[in-house]
Amino acid sequence: MSKSFAPLTHPIGFYPVVPTATWVERLLGWGVHTIQLRIKAADHTPAEISAEVIAAVDAGKAIPGAQVFINDHWQLALAANAYGVHLGQEDLDTADIEALRAAGIRLGLSTHTPAELARAKAVQPSYLAIGPIYPTTLKVMPYEPVGLER
Predict the structure, then answer these.
(1) Distance (Å, rounded) from C-alpha 84 to C-alpha 82?
(2) Upstream peptide bond of 19 is cis (omega within 30 degrees of 0)
(3) What are the angstrom distances between the C-alpha of 49 and each of 77, 112, 134?
(4) Domains of the chain (ranges plus CATH)?
(5) How many whole angstroms separate alpha carbon 123 and alpha carbon 6?
(6) pTM check: above 0.85
């Protein structure tokens, strides 16, 4: 059995997901310490994405206790020595999980079904995200909201 990913430094608490490094910097300045940078690749060039990831990681490194997670772009996060990476289920098939673990990067995984939850738990990530809890208009979801009762 593989070993667990590094634990989080602090409880997650309020966890905004933002589209730019500027938002990461702004929220860190407001005292928010756990933030996810989620860049939609279709809207940016690879160079722009790389610059955003590096800026967000650097902003997090400048604030003691900051937990900045990079969504999806695990190669860039690994190269920048990011605090953490957040991946979806589809990313588990292509991401170099062992390289992330060996680098000490924290890993968060999204789950939507009991089967995905079991698969994610086997990776032993730093945290698991479960959802959607409520309906969303941000993107098309192939899953029904799980609600609070489950």
Answers:
(1) 5
(2) no
(3) 11, 27, 29
(4) 17-130 (3.20.20.70)
(5) 12
(6) yes
